[in-house]
Amino acid sequence: MNISRSLNRGHAERPIGIFDSGVGGLTVFKALRARLPGEHLLYLGDTARLPYGTKSAESVTRYALQAASHLAERGVKMLVIACNTASAIAMPALVREFAPLPVIGVVEAGAEAAVRTSKSGHIAVLATESTVRGGAYARAIAARRPDARVFSQACSLFVALAEEGWTRGPLVEAVAREYLHPLLEEKKRDGLDCLVLGCTHFPLLQETIAHVAGSGVILVDSGETVALVVEELLVEQKLIRSRDAKGDAHFLATDGAERFARVGSLFLGERLAAQDVELADL
Ligand code: DGL
Fold this sequence. Notes:
alpha/beta; Rossmann fold; six-stranded parallel sheet; 11 helices; 10 strands; binds D-glutamic acid
């Protein structure tokens, strides 16, 4: 692979490549566009192989490398791994494969935000099964705050609920109560005060999760933190585009342009049309 090495980097006009397993990463896309309106954004959702959250580490790494390679071939100046599962599992392989192209993942950004937010150091991470199994959030938090206690909870059903647009109401609340039950026990016992939304889909259920978690627990969404990290890096590497310019957005999906547009609109909070989505073959 290593296509990135032949690219002419140092080129601010190139787009930022954003990769996710599907439409969920549009929450990160949205945060990037709000913070960096001058940047061109190229988003790739691997909808043909979604979900990543239940797949083996080997498959997730292989898929992530293929997707990142596609973005690198299209000449991106930076890779943002919006998918928490891919970030949690494939970051070392991505960084190795694409260096010196900057690769930024949401896990480190989420861990940083959690450590800054939590007073007690008792932090819960809600994520997919594969993210929890890999333990990357716990490691990233411990690296920043060794005395932190991290409780991880896989919440696979939240992904399907968000994709259906079911983000509130009794059914969603019942599912959230079930998942959060052990964490609420920790809250009573040990003063858990921060909850990381460690999956692209969970910000859509933020209101319900916050309601079930109750007062005294702050929710952390890595999207905004990642946007800040991207901005800092663009400035540092002199890759930032003028803020007065207007950045373009381009969407790629590996399957189902119509579904990508329909479900993606929920995540983006604005209408996307199927014609706006180009099908890509990895
Ligand atoms: N994008 C995934 C994540 O953030 C959620 C969806 C999936 O399982 O692929 O972990």
